[in-house]
Amino acid sequence: MFQECSFEQCHQVLIHSKANILIIDQKKDMRENILMWIVKTSYEDFKKLESDGFGLDAAFPVEGVPIDIGLNSKTTEEEYTRLQQYINEGKVIQFSHEEASRIISKIVDPSVYKVWGECMEGMIHCVENSAVGLHYDATYRGHEIIIRMWYFQFNPQDPWPKFKNDMYVPPMAKCVHDCIKTTTPFDREITTVINRISSGYGTVIINTDKGAVQVPLIPVIRDVYSVEITSRITEFIIERLKHSGANLEPHRPSEGTITFLDRATIEINNFSAKNGLIKFKLDLKRSGTKRKSIRPFGHIIVPVFYNKSLDVELDLSQIDLTKNVFCLSGLESGYGIKDLCFNGTEIESLIMQQFENTKKYYNKIKSEDTAG
Q: How far apart are CA 345 and CA 321, in angstroms?
């Protein structure tokens, strides 16, 4: 019933390498070990290791600090102390398994790193599919973020987590329900509600002695979600065109000699969602035929094309995107309407709705795979 994913067998691979010094807790992953090592290692010992050629070179992004704190042979004592403080507060964000692996790859032999990396992949997969430990889920609804946290004990003797700090909420947001303090008991599922109140990026941080929960105010939209999101945007554009009176079906306009033989094509291309910045290209395409007079021989049939494109760019960190209006004009000949317009809030809303729907779908599949 109780299963713990221990990284001990992976860390044993590093026992005869320089990286072994970074292992503070055999049961934790390398990401946590590196952070723990920095906190426990004095600046003097760090400098001595660097002067002996240890070669730890990394940059740590910190919530609320515009420039990453670098850790290398040039790091000052003040910078090192501040980094230790930020780690203790759980404010070192986006320090991933990939970044921890990159650090290890620089200080161990490639053959050792290969064996260690393969072992770590298996352990990380175990953790992701494990029912025990600290878990959380974040749901984005407009400007509201709902954070659910729960903990499953590794065994009956495993103590409940304790909050190390009051929860950190960036200045562009506020907590409106179940705002966590150090005195808050964590022996139940906790649902915290955060409201965004102004534009900007930031991360909500809930720091426990069993790990930290870090939830960005703007969700990370992975590439795997792009198919479903672009499909939903396409549906929206088709609905808007039809509502505006556009004729997308094969037809012959009564006022001319043009014949549209095929249905108009609406495409969303080059979609990207990096760091909250949404970009895509809207392409409207349709073709037909037209009679062209050729004197004195009568007429011939020639192809005609009515293709229109619109580049859309949205910054999801902006609190109000209503004023971001996008219009595609000159649609009279090919589509029978003057223009097609929509605003940023409409696109933001459907992207976020589809993001949540797709996330639930993938989580369901993951849950079924784990149960199986």
A: 5
Which strand (E) or helix (H) includes residue 335?
A: helix 332-335
Distance CA 79, CA 38 (A): 12
pLDDT digits (tens, 9 = 90+) for 162-187: 999 999 999 999 999 999 999 999 99
Cis peptide before 61 (omega within 30 of 0): no
Residue 336, Cβ neighbours under 10 Å: how many? Answer: 15
Task: Report the alpha-carbon distance of residue 28 to residue 7 in Å, rounded.
Answer: 6
Nearest Cα neighbor of 246 from 229, 266, 232, 226 is 266
Is the distance from CB of 254 to CB of 247 less than 8 angstroms? no
191 strand-pairing partners: 148
Average pLDDT for 316-336 = 93
Residue 118, phi then psi, degrees to nearest 5: -65, -40
CA atoms of 235 and 350, how far apart (whole Å):
10
Chain centroid to CA 176: how far? 24
Using an 8 Å Cβ cutoff, are 288 and 265 in contact? no
**What 8-state DSSP symbol labels residue 209?**
B
pLDDT tens for each residue of 57-109: 888 989 888 888 989 888 999 999 999 999 988 889 878 888 899 999 999 99
The residues facing 295 across adjacent strands are none
Place of tokens 């759980």: 90
Spatial separation of the C-alpha atoms in residues 296 and 280, rounded to whole Å: 48
The span from the CA of 365 to the CA of 367, in Å, is 5
DSSP state, 56?
A: -
DSSP state of 68: P
Beta strands in the chain (DSSP E): 58-60, 69-71, 133-141, 144-152, 173-177, 190-196, 203-208, 211-216, 258-259, 265-274, 277-285, 287-294, 298-305, 308-315, 325-329, 339-343
Burial class (CB within 10 angstroms; exposed 0-12, middle 13-18, buried 19+) of 159: exposed
